[in-house]
Amino acid sequence: MTHWHTDGFRPGGTWRNGLWRVGVSALLLSVMGTAVHAAPPAGPKTGPSGTHDDGPAEPMVVPLQTRDGVQLKCTFYPSTKGKKAVPVVILHEWKGKRSDYKDLALFLQSKGHAVMVPDLRGHGESTTMRIGPDKTITLKAIKIKKKDIELMVLEDMEAVKRFLRDEKNNEGELNLEKLCIIGVEMGAVVAANWALLDWDTPVFPPPHKRGQDVKALVLVSPEWSFKGVSMAPAIENAKLQANLSIMLMVGSKDTKALEAAEKIENKLARFHPEPADGEAKSKKTLYMVKLDTSLQGAKLVNQVELKTDRIISGFIDLRLVEQSFPWSERRRP
C-alpha cells in the first residue's frame, strides 16, 4: 500500500508542509500543483450535451423522493465534459450536511467532474418523510438508528443513483461507469455498503445494465461500524474488492480514528496487493493517506493546508479519468 505523510521530511524526499510518498508520481504531481485553493466561482451553464469549456455550470438544488417517502435535498454540480465526466457522490458524516462539502464539490467540479452531494435522511434539509397522502413526519439525526442507516443505503442512495442514471448519464452529461463515492465517517459506512449493493445487482447487458458502476471509494475518517451497521460485508467481499480502487484518509494524531482506518486497510490488503516490480504503478488499487493532524471528518476535508481536495482529485484522475470504462446508455429492462 502507498502511504502518505504530512510531517515534513521522509527518507527519499523533502517537501515542507506537503506530502511525501513512495510510488505513483501522477498523484504526487496533482497535489503539488498549487499551494492553497479557493473555491472556484460558478460559471455559465452548459447546454444539454455539457461539452463546452466556458467554465463550471451553476450548481443546482435537486429535490428527490425515495421509494419510502423521504424528501431528499441534494446539490448537483454539473460537468462540462459530457460523456467523459466522472460522477462523484459525497456523503457526509452523522449530524453533518451537504453544505459542509461545498468547497470540495466546487474544486472537483472545476476539474471536470460531475458532483452530487445529498443530505442523507434526517440530516440537513432531508428531514421530511411522507407517510400518507396528507401526512408527513420529521426525521432527526439525533434519533438515527440502525434501520435508518440501512435505509440510507437501500433508499437514499438508490434515489441518487436513479437521478444520475436517468437524468444525467442517459443525457450524455456524465459517465456512470466511472462512479466514485466519497464517504466521511458515517458516510463511509453508507458508501461501502452501497457499493456492495451496487455490485450485487443482477448483470444485464447494455443498454439494460443496472449496477456494477461504483469503481472507486474514498473513505475519510472511516468507521468500522456505525449504529450497528458494519463495513465488514463490503470490506471482506472478494467480488467487490476485485473491481474497486480505494483510498483511505485519516488524521494520524487521533489514535482511535487511526486504528479504525488501519483495521480497514489491513482487511483490504489481501484483495489489493502491491504491483509486482516492473509493473505499472497505475495498477495500484489501495492507498492509505495519513495526514499529520488530529482533525477528522469535514474538518479534515476542509483544512486547506492539508490539500485533501488535491489528493482526492489525484486519486480520481489516476483510477478513473485515466482508466477505460466506456460510456453506455441505460434503459430499463
Structure, explained:
The structure is a single chain. This protein is of the alpha/beta class. The protein has one domain: 3-Layer(aba) Sandwich (Rossmann fold). It is built from nine helices and 14 strands. Strands 1, 2, 3, 4, 5, 6, 7, 8, 9, 10, 13 and 14 form a twelve-stranded mixed β-sheet that branches. Helix 1 (25-32) crosses helix 9 and helix 3 crosses helix 4. The radius of gyration is 19 Å and the shape is globular. The protein starts with a strand and ends in a 12-residue tail after the last helix. Residues 4-52 have low confidence and may be disordered.
Brief digest:
With 333 residues, this protein is an alpha/beta fold. It has helices spanning 25-32, 102-110, 146-169, 186-200, 232-235, 238-241, 255-269, 297-302, 308-321; strands at 2-5, 20-21, 60-65, 70-77, 87-91, 114-118, 128-132, 135-138, 179-184, 214-220, 225-226, 229-230, 245-251, 286-291. The protein has a single domain, classed as Rossmann fold, CATH 3.40.50.1820.
